[in-house]
Amino acid sequence: MTDSLKDWRRTHYSREVKPEMNSPKVTLMGWIHEIRDLGGIIFLLLRDRDGITQITAPSKKVSAKLFEEIRSLRKESVVAVEGTVQESPQAPGGVEIIPQRILLLNTSHQPLPLDPTEKVRAEIDTRLDSRFLDLRKHSVNSIFKIKSRMLHSVRVFLENQEFIEINTPKLVASATEGGTELFPITYFEREAFLGQSPQLYKQMMMATSLDKVYEIAPIFRAEEHDTLRHLNEAISIDVEVAFADQKDVMTLLENLVANAIKDVKEHCREELDTLGMDLDVPETPFPRVDYAEVVDLVNSKGVNLHYGDDLSRAAEKALGEIMDSYYFITNWPSEIKPFYVMPNRKNPKISHAFDLMYRDLEISSGAMRVHLHDLLVERIKGKGLNPDSFNRYLAAFQYGMPPHAGWGLGAERFTMCLTGAKNVRETVLFPRDRRRLTP
RNA sequence: GCCCUGGUGGUGUAGGGGCUAUCAUGUGGGCCUGUCGAGCCCACGACUCGGGUUCAAAUCCCGGCCAGGGCGCCA
To answer: Is CATH 2.40.50.140 the classification given to domain A5-106?
Structure first.
């Protein structure tokens, strides 16, 4: 039998319960983390959003009825405890609650599918199957508190610079952008696709008075990649700025990244400690490494990389051994960058594209874009694509498209940098990968 | 998609032709008034599925499914 909540309400969270508290009567609500029944005294550990408080029930100090109620509790049951705060040198944190009344709000089946106290670790697959329980672990929910703070920081940073938040469609008609595989879906009587990137939409905004925009939204890629760095659904932080070139948006990006790291370091101290992370705020500007120099560096490490190739995994790893923080790779060959990337006027074989790396991990790529209609058509054809299928996009370039630049930053990959997660799945509540579609 | 490795109680594991299938944690019960990875006692609970080899398969072989790692793919 469970109790109803009635007019009980939480007065404090665990982290607010301090030995020196001057309001001795409190109501805490949470889960039973541990039970230590010593016979004449029972210790309950009550866990809530970011802390654990010891509830101490000595048989001499609580009623016999309450004592039996406490004795019958099971791990992970949901309870509300009303009691008095007691300073106690023997208690964890020097403070404990002597209970007066307890509500059992809900029970938990036993045994649990994994151990929230982390005495026995569980594999990622087991954890993701029971993600709701996994997320009760402080080491797991800390990742999402940090991710949330990072996104908050990014929004504040961009809003302060008068960026406008936009929302572009995720249901799209065309698979003709080339490159990555798309997820096909049924759109009434037609076929449609899940959007792989807001790229073309945010560029079209450059031809409007919404000429500094950002979007934080999911992107979908139907690649069969099966690695620790790839997801089939991810969050992209996309930015596009008119009347700007790649240098402007690189400055914007590095300041945004450094600012987010500083902000997380300041506001998520406890979560970072839990994860054993000691974040260094990188100095700006970040180093710029020319693509041609990257090729030389990688080859000097004994990894074969030809000029004109995209970075292989081995090349990224070799680079990561040389560069130990954030850095840009610039002046990429036009050949291996998308059609909308602006080639260098003097040497069109080189483009105004850049990647932002953290050690061996690519976290962002961006560029100055092609804003000239005829050049864009030429570039689309050059990539073996049909300009006709880009009509609605290309039209925006015929009626006054300013020069512009932008980038997309992978929210999960950036979160990996902030939390030390080795597997990108750790940074998504319910990851979608090659095999996983539930929960 | 390719390569490698694996699948043993709820969880994490040991074992690797014949064992009562190991250990920890857990769960259920008992003892214990200062635990804090509490302790002690008792009990419970497992060999991924299908086929094959063999007197005998959790163990060897083949196939499926699932998972982990590496790579590729990732405009």
So the answer is: yes
